[in-house]
Amino acid sequence: MLITIWVILVIVGVFDAREYRIPNSLVLLLVVLSFVASFIEPSVIQQGWLLHIAGFVAAFFIGLIFYVLKIMAAGDVKLFGVLGLMLGLIQLPLFAQYLAVSCVFIGGMYWLLNRLELAGQATRVNNSKGNIAHTISIQAYQLKDDFKSRRNLAYMPFAPVLIVALAMYHYFHG
């Protein structure tokens, strides 16, 4: 894969992590660079264009389902489609395995960070009242209620997860 594509992917990941959005111009630039790279990539020449276009369609529609379920944002769906174009339909199931690992690890870190921030806020409030033991016993019940009511959930940008999964895929199977 061209170094320029990786640079753009890193920019997209940082932009999404900082602002929780992905500019369409960067996604469009990735599509153009993917087409240019496909003329020199041996995998595209061997597999043919049809499988890469099918990879785009499959990844985009899977992302669209997650968008409808409010799991992914629109920019993430477009980026996932571009990654499907880059990898092709045959490579998507293997990429999905790395995506699962990346999602669990990075998602766990975001969730833990959110929990620590909430615990810190609660501790500061209860320290002023002098009741720390009460805070710890309530947190277990609060976690269950938060999931039911969809409060205090950890929202994570998905582009870094996709990019880390792509890096893992290329490291182990590139």
UniProtKB/TrEMBL annotation:
Gene Ontology cellular component list: membrane
Transmembrane segments: 27-44, 49-69, 89-113, 153-172
Annotated InterPro entries: Prepilin_IV_endopep_pep
GO molecular function, one term: aspartic-type endopeptidase activity
Sections of the chain in a coiled coil: none
Keywords, ordered alphabetically: Membrane, Transmembrane, Transmembrane helix
This protein's name: Prepilin type IV endopeptidase peptidase domain-containing protein
